[in-house]
Amino acid sequence: MSFQRWKEDLIELGRLGRRIPARIDAYGQLAPEKGLFRLEGTEEMRQSKEYVMARMREAGLKVRIDKVGNIFARKEGSKINRGAVMSGSHLDSVLNGGMFDGPLGVISALEAVRIMNDEALENERPIEVVIFTGEEGSAFKKALLGSLILVGKMPVEEAWKLENNEGLTLKAALDRFGLRGDFEMDLSEVEYFIETHVEQGPILDQEKIPIGIVENITGLTWVSAILEGEENHAGTTPMFARKDALVAAAKIVLFANRRAQEMVRELGGSTVATVGRMSVLPGAPNIVPGRVEMGIDIRDGIEEHMKNLMDEITGRMKDLEAECGVKTSITVPFYHLPHPCSKVVVDTIEKAVQGMGIQARRMNSGAGHDAQNIAEKVKTGMIFVPSVKGISHSPMEWTNWEDVERGIMVLTRALKDLSKLRI
Ligand code: HGY
Ligand code: MN
Ligand code: MN
Questions:
Q1: What is the longest distance spanned by two Cα atoms in the chain?
Q2: Alpha carbon of 230 to ligand 3 centroid (Å)
Q3: What number of other Cβ atoms are within 10 A of residue 320's Cβ?
Q4: How many whole angstroms from 169 Cα to the centroid of ligand 1?
């Protein structure tokens, strides 16, 4: 395999979207301030999608863009033209994110196809390399957006109206760069899907195991809340006469954290709750905060647990209206169910690693992925490669190059094997 090709692609994509421009090809070059801000609908995203589409065309793939900017690149099958094997991920990042979350899955799928071309490895079924739009929700507030629309859980016209922080709709953001097409992928024409992804957790790195085979993908939902109290003078407003929105918000932060910890202790599951976004207005030390906007991320591998915790947190918010004298308005931008991976795909990946003599372990995903949406319509699996120190959604995210390469080799074998399956 041409070692440089896929590595160059990942380094180039790791450059497009950094506010402090840098080409990073070694762990030692990482720095907390050098993260990626490659959000859907930005110039950096245009450059990145154009870069990958050029590489796809060089590989002889037929590139099509759908109505919400999902990109598909097709390699025809040698024996049949239906029941494609699809593989890919996303290119958008979180704020100040890492360079492997998303692009690793896109470039791994592209490289697998390039290897099949170079080595004349036969794919009896067609292969589709896919780039999903807006997976992180960092621009348009709905995570796993492109795959949500693809599986028909959100109408295109409704998605087009989603607005980013500049007040730009998804439709306008795609149109300004010519990245809204009219292709429609019919998932009934796709038989299997594999997403290769960095684990984004510590298990593979700690256990020194190079490949993870995902069995279940966590459910995830966001709760967005606005707490409105009363701005007032910090010096003259008596402590018992305040409607302090930040005190109410702080109670929510501690409640969510405590209840998630208690649920892990009681249920031994994968419950997590995080308040990762909060704005305090007007935002001066001498003004009692009148308004707080906050975003809460809640996840569990078991939907009932996730729902219960969400209900407890929103219920606590309502209690605070009397306790703190605030008004709360709550929205749920999305609610993604947990989803098991398909046995036939999991077994195919396992046979591939066994045939290659590569150590692997089955595991669950604490991160959400487009794969969990696609799994509702297509037999789906995921391949994980280690995240150094388990870090992700951070500029310090890293996967060693030999682990990236191993993931590509396993994916290539699995795609080839799936392309021959007739079940
Ligand atoms: O948030 C997640 O789990 C994913 O990285 N979008
Ligand atoms: Mn992510
Ligand atoms: Mn991701």
A1: 80
A2: 39
A3: 21
A4: 22
Which atom belonging to ligand 1 lies closest to the Cα atom of 102? 5
> Greater confidence, 312 or 3?
312
Report whether pLDDT(2) > 60. Answer: no
Q: How distant, in Å, are the alpha carbons of 94, 102, 218, 247 from that of 393?
A: 6, 11, 17, 28
- Identify the residue whose C-alpha is closest to ligand 1 atom 4: 368
pLDDT tens digits, 209-229: 999 999 999 999 999 999 999
In short, whether 143's Cβ falls inside 6 Å of ligand 1 is yes
Q: Which two structure tokens, joined as six digits, stand for 37? A: 């801000």
Q: How confident is the model at residue 26 (pLDDT cuts 50, 70, 90)?
A: very high
Nearest to 404, CA basis, from 377, 384, 378, 376: 384
* Gap between the Cα atoms of 144 and 130, Å rounded: 14
Instruction: Give the ligand at the shortest distance from the Cα of 137.
Output: 1
pTM of this prediction exceeds 0.85: yes
Ligand 1 nearest atom to the CA of residue 366, by list position: 3
370 lines ligand 1 (CB under 6 A): no
Strand-strand pairing, 335-336 and 62-65: unpaired
From the CA of 25, how far away is ligand 1's center (Å)? 24
SS3 225: strand
**In contact, 288 and 209? CB cutoff 8 Å:** no
> What is the SS3 string spanning 27-85?
HHHCCCCCCECCCCCCHHHHHHHHHHHHHHHHCCCEEEEECCCCEEEEECCCCCCCCEE
Ligand 1 touching residue 205 (CB < 6 A): no
CA of 297 to the centre of ligand 1 (A): 10
Separation of alpha carbons 351 and 213, rounded Å: 11
